[in-house]
Amino acid sequence: MSKTIMIVDDSASLRQVVGIALRNAGYDVLEGCDGKDALSKLKGQKVHLMISDVNMPNMDGISFVKAVKQNPSYKFTPIVMLTTETADGKKAEGQAAGAKAWVTKPFKPEQLLGVVQKLVLP
């Protein structure tokens, strides 16, 4: 059975690039255009990993991580932050909220897939 990964980013082109890399690696992909949109798509189905941007309209990535961690179905789902944000303060905030890894844009798809393979739930 294939594993499902959710991509949350307000950039459609970035969701497309990440989505193609993940689909080519055999994953199913769910997409959200911001934190609020992504939360509305989490209906209790199994999601093995989430990849989220930090700076988004409506609900930013850190708020999204906090909201996900409060949902019993997704409490243990690993979340990777994929962002242009390099400030240590933001990273600390992300980790405190429950993010498991921080990948900086621009990134190489192989680099992201490496992180995904390490963290994705069995």
UniProtKB/TrEMBL annotation:
It comes from the Bacteria. Keywords: Phosphoprotein. Signal peptide: none annotated. Residues 4-120 form the Response regulatory domain. Transmembrane segments: none annotated. PROSITE patterns: RESPONSE_REGULATORY (PS50110). InterPro entries: Bact_response_regulator, CheY-like_superfamily, Sig_transdc_resp-reg_receiver. The keyword Cell wall biogenesis/degradation does not apply. It holds the Pfam family Response_reg. GO terms for biological process: phosphorelay signal transduction system. The modification 4-aspartylphosphate is found at D53. This is Response regulator. It comes from Aquincola agrisoli.
